[in-house]
Design a protein that fits this description.
Blueprint lengths: L2 H30 L4 E16 L5 E15 L21 H29 L1 E4 L2 E4 L4 H4 L6 E6 L2 E2 L3 H14 L3 E6 L5 E6 L10 H8 L1 E3 L8 E2 L4 H5 L6 E5 L2 E2 L3 H12 L4 E8 L2 E8 L1 E3 L7 E3 L2 E2 L5 E4 L3 H27 L11 H13 L2 H20 L6 H14 L5 H30 L3
Helix pairs in contact: 1-2, 1-9, 2-8, 2-10, 2-11, 8-10, 9-10
Length: 448
């Protein structure tokens, strides 16, 4: 699928699912509390599809997919037929209004647990946390060696590459020294400390990761498979041969080998390759060919494939998956609140915010990696929506909850004047936040 089309498509799928679930929470609890629902809308603006349900509610899908709403019978928006007074929103007890407003974020939280539960049952294909360090980087100075396997980070066990990187990324927000335990290729376990306190302030997570220099261990320059009838096989290369050099250029890893083949073949297709087999060096003369592999652009090839990174898949039965889903939801919520707190106090950069463009890109990438990854992505976005909507900003659910809590304390509703002023302040804050996130998305496309 074209990356642009894929990003737009999976963004619409993501927003459609999560907005529907959020608004259904408001709708369902409102109906349970006896409030008449006039309209259930996924999206804003002009309707592109709508129908009237048996309950009298107008259901619609609107043109602008960045949200949705549930319109209830509300005396603040016009006169209410006396016969319907018992179904009007503001006439309900304050605890029912709180329940209706809180139901949207609450349903997003339920969806988060459900999505993580499905992810753990389906399995999320990943790689083992076998790492290396960029030379002269923080990770190298901390004692990370090529082939080290991360066992735990800050006392918490990790089993996959993405889990370990998530833990490191979260720790970077506070920029405190981070303890981790690794096992080397010789089987010895070591306790190390990543000096995150030396990271400069005010950068985003991506730049911090570059500075840290912790990366997935590179594949060795080994020809795992030599394809019959291809140049390497015709020259005598065998599966398991270790490529030492190409035209005198050393190949420290398989990435070097892949880089050197087209680079040297562009000068001359006749390549002098040294391989190691059984502890002995064998010189081979290989004539590269230009081919297109699996629909990819034409390039120079010799017909070998690499070893694969060690796989790690988290997959549980229903009961264990549910427990893991609850724990992951809790940990992710704690990490999100930690990030918000760090940004509010200036300890973390607002460059870490992402908007619609960033979400679309991650949606497409996660969908291409499999259903488990897409459920994980949906869970994180749903959790973010729940937390965002609970923030005490007028126009968001959290703002209305604040008004109703004040009403509980003072015994009377907040005045219309205060609510209107809050709406304007809330809109300014919300558009500022959205503008900052959009700016970050655009800035990531620009050359540094």
């Amino acid at each position: 699928m074209n990356p642009l089309f894929g990003s737009v498509f999976w963004l619409l799928v993501t927003l459609g699912v999560l907005v529907t679930f959020h608004e259904f929470g408001h709708y369902w609890v409102a109906r349970r509390c006896g409030v008449r629902v006039l309209r259930f809308s996924v999206g804003f603006g002009k309707a592109i599809w709508k129908r009237i349900g048996k309950d009298g509610t107008e259901y619609q899908v609107a043109m602008i997919p960045l949200g949705g709403y549930v319109k209830m019978l509300d005396a603040r928006e016009g006169d209410v037929d006396p016969a319907l007074a018992g179904q009007e929103f503001t006439g309900k007890p304050v605890w029912q209004r709180i329940a209706i407003v809180a139901a949207g974020p609450g349903f997003n939280l339920l969806f988060t647990v459900l999505a993580f539960w499905l992810m753990f049952m389906l399995g999320k294909p990943d790689l083992a946390p076998v790492v290396a360090a960029v030379p002269q980087s923080m990770a190298a100075e901390a004692g990370i060696h090529a082939g080290d396997r991360i066992l735990s980070i800050d006392g918490r066990p990790v089993a996959t590459w993405s889990d370990s990187m998530d833990a490191v990324a979260n720790a970077m927000l506070g920029r405190d020294p981070l303890p981790l335990q690794v096992r080397g290729t010789d089987g010895t376990q070591r306790n190390l400390v990543l000096p995150l306190d030396r990271l400069p302030a005010g950068e985003d997570i991506g730049q911090y990761l570059d500075t840290l220099g912790l990366k997935l261990a590179p594949l060795p320059p080994v020809a795992a498979t030599v394809l019959p009838g291809k140049p390497a096989a015709e020259a005598g290369m065998q599966g398991g041969d270790r490529i030492v050099s190409i035209n005198g250029q050393p190949a420290a890893g398989y990435d070097d080998f892949q880089r050197l083949i087209p680079l040297e073949a562009a000068k001359s297709p006749h390549l002098h390759v040294i391989v190691e087999r059984g502890g002995k060096a064998f010189p081979l003369d290989i004539t590269a060919r230009k081919e297109s592999l699996e629909g990819q652009p034409v390039t120079w090839v010799i017909g070998v494939s690499s070893l694969e990174h060690e796989k790690a898949v988290l997959r549980y039965g229903p009961a264990k998956a549910f427990g893991a889903a609850l724990q992951t939801t809790w940990n992710s919520a704690a990490a999100t609140f930690n990030m918000i707190g760090k940004m509010l106090t200036g300890q973390a950069s607002t460059k870490n915010l992402s908007g619609v463009i960033g979400i679309a890109q991650v949606a497409n990438a996660s969908a291409s990696m499999g259903l488990g990854w897409f459920f994980s992505f949906l869970a994180m976005v749903s959790l973010s929506l729940a937390i965002l909507n609970l923030m005490p900003i007028p126009v968001l659910d959290g703002g209305y909850l604040l008004y109703y809590l004040i009403e509980l304390v003072k015994g009377s509703p907040v005045s219309e004047r205060v609510m209107m002023a809050g709406q304007y302040v809330g809109l300014v804050l919300l558009f500022t936040l959205m503008g900052l996130a959009f700016y970050n998305d655009i800035h990531r496309f620009l050359p540094t």
